[in-house]
Write a structure and sequence with these properties.
This protein has 263 residues and is mainly alpha-helical. It has one domain. Helix content is 87%, strand content 0%. Helix 1 runs antiparallel to helix 8, helix 5 packs antiparallel against helix 6 and helix 7 packs across helix 8.
């Protein structure tokens, strides 16, 4: 995939961050879209989990075992790939729970964030790191295979609105104006685009680096799906049991996209 196409798809996921902020800063839109946002979280969780285990991990295994002389060598390749995947997962865990412990999906309600505006900036910083790796996930997948790239693009796109919503809600809860909330969404959107550009530029110089970037970014995506989105779905399920069923719809949507792209 050429640089222009990567920039196009990266721009789309970045704009979705801003769209999530608009849901919160425009009250009329927010009242109509709040329930939809919950469904989108569940749909994205199911789609992302399916994309990771059905599409990305098998592709990673193929890349890391290509040319292996025997089973032992192939096993070492898989071990290296899974180590990178675990590293990506643990990095986001570290960022969210050590660097920016106030970050989570959904509406920010921590009272200390209102008292201490600095906590909001810390959270936005952590969320920016998180979205940077969203961008690397999309770009890395496209570089390896166009079909994989399209599936990862859809998976990431589905949770971009909730990310933008989160960033805006954190800023509003810290006492900042709506304009500051929208600026926060622009920052995390720019971080997403920076992730895309970093892989695009890196790929033009060191193609082999993408082999390492894909399993690492898969770990990042797995964390988003399993540790950010699924707990939020479980929380939303208390008020609306239908939300949990939407996760399965997300898995079904993945298979639908998978079949359409194959054709």
């Amino acid at each position: 995939m050429n640089f222009g196409e990567l920039l196009f798809f990266g721009g789309l996921v970045a704009l979705a961050n801003v769209g999530g902020g608009l849901l919160l800063t425009r009250p009329r839109i927010f009242q109509k879209g709040r329930q939809f946002l919950g469904y989108l979280v569940a749909l994205g969780a199911g789609f992302m989990l399916a994309a990771i285990f059905i599409e990305i991990v098998p592709e990673v295994v193929v890349l890391w075992t290509r040319g292996a002389a025997d089973g032992a060598q192939a096993g070492h390749g898989v071990l290296g790939a899974m180590t990178l995947l675990l590293g990506g997962y643990l990095l986001i865990h570290f960022v969210e729970h050590t660097v920016a412990p106030h970050f989570h999906f959904g509406e920010e309600t921590h009272p200390e964030a209102v008292v201490r505006p600095s906590a909001a900036y810390t959270a936005i910083g952590g969320l920016s790191i998180h979205t940077f790796f969203d961008g690397t996930s999309v770009a890395s997948a496209f570089v390896v295979d166009r079909k994989v790239g399209l599936l990862v693009f859809v998976a990431v796109l589905l949770h971009k609105l909730p990310e933008g919503f989160t960033a805006a809600s954190i800023m509003l809860a810290s006492g900042r104006a709506a304009s500051s909330a929208l600026t926060a969404t622009l920052i995390i959107g720019a971080a997403t685009l920076a992730g895309v550009l970093s892989v695009a530029l890196l790929q033009s110089h060191v193609t082999e680096a993408v082999v390492y970037a894909l399993p690492f970014s898969a770990g990042v995506t797995l964390y988003v799906a399993a540790s950010d989105l699924i707990p939020e779905v479980n929380h939303l399920e208390e008020k609306n049991p239908i939300v949990s069923l939407i996760v399965f719809a997300g898995v079904a949507l993945f298979y639908l996209f998978h079949l359409l792209i194959e054709r």
